[in-house]
Design a protein that fits this description.
321 residues; 4 strands; membrane; mainly alpha; 64% helix
Length: 321
């Protein structure tokens, strides 16, 4: 197994530029999360078009007067949590945060003293750091399966299977190596930032170790399952990265997305990334891992299912009884 690891590392190091680019993106995402966390005391930013000047009853809300309606992208990117058009008799609220948020905001516009109702539960610095690095980490996991995909594409897998190495040992090598290459650098980045005192990382290193370990387990399971269905490495990487990017954005990694559609929101709720982000927020709020057993079980369970599918698919394709 050690000899196989050395061989895999030598092949990975030949393409080290890809490794450094992805780790650089993760590092940038961490500092971006810290910057966003510290840019002001308000937690809700509302753009108001027309109408009288709004009273602000707390520093957790920022009212921004607007002369015209901004693009919808301003809501999607989190520039504003809501846009309120006061030019009509009844205020018209535009937001991606759902009917409940609209209702609370309407109450605030009627009575600014009801500020507590619309304060957002976005978590602290730790939640933002993990949220911002999540998409890059997951996309990195897909490109991290390049060795497995190349061995299939170049028909090296057929030759390896004929050697005395067992199929399970071979598959475990691919999966474990991919997990380690994903887990160790990300944890070292967080630990380095913490030890150098560059910024507050929000959570303890032990919590980061557990949380990164859990999400990299899911990421590796998805990546190997995705790669098992394709013979061409580029096809597997492109489709897997696209799936990870879209589902991570929908899960609220960068900003909360709630269009008020119950069916749509229920689907998003069951995304592994969404469940993971809920776990991070709960841990940062002081809950124990035992209190979040169901979330952990779901994440580990879906990782196990993906891994079993990948093993069964690959074994059926290459192992002849």
């Amino acid at each position: 197994m050690i000899a196989m690891f050395r061989n895999d590392w030598a092949r990975t190091w030949q393409n080290k530029a890809r490794l450094f680019v992805m780790l650089g993106l993760i590092l940038v995402s961490i500092f971006l999360a810290v910057f966003v966390s510290s840019k002001g005391n308000f937690s809700t930013k509302i753009g108001v078009i027309g109408g009288p000047k709004q009273e602000v009853a707390s520093d957790t809300v920022k009212i921004v007067p607007l002369s015209k309606e901004p693009n919808k992208s301003a809501l999607a990117l989190g520039t504003y949590d809501a846009i309120v058009d006061m030019r009509q008799e009844t205020p018209v609220i535009s937001t991606f945060k759902g009917a409940e948020y609209k209702k609370e905001l309407m109450n605030y516009l009627k009575d600014p003293q009801s500020i507590k109702a619309i304060q957002k539960n976005e978590g602290g610095t730790g939640s933002k750091i993990i949220g911002y690095m999540l998409m890059f980490l997951l996309m990195f996991s897909v490109t991290n399966m390049l060795l497995f995909s190349e061995d299939k594409e170049k028909h090296i897998m057929e030759r390896i299977i004929t050697t005395p190495i067992s199929f399970i040992k071979l598959f475990a090598n691919y999966a474990l190596f991919a997990w380690l290459v994903l887990f160790i650098p990300n944890l070292l980045i967080i630990a380095g930032i913490s030890f150098l005192g560059l910024t507050d990382i929000g959570l303890s290193l032990m919590n980061y170790t557990i949380l990164i370990g859990v999400i990299t387990l899911f990421a590796t399971a998805f990546a190997v399952c995705n790669a098992s269905f394709f013979q061409v490495a580029d096809t597997a990487s492109m489709l897997g990265s696209m799936i990870m990017m879209i589902t991570t954005l929908l899960s609220g990694s960068f900003f909360s997305l709630d269009n008020g559609n119950k069916f749509f929101n229920d689907l998003i709720h069951w995304l592994p990334q969404k469940q993971f982000l809920e776990l991070v927020k709960n841990i940062e709020a002081g809950q124990s891992y035992g209190d979040n057993f169901q979330l952990l079980f779901y994440l580990i369970g879906i990782s196990a299912v993906l891994m079993i599918i990948a093993i069964a698919k690959t074994r059926k394709e290459y192992v002849r009884n």
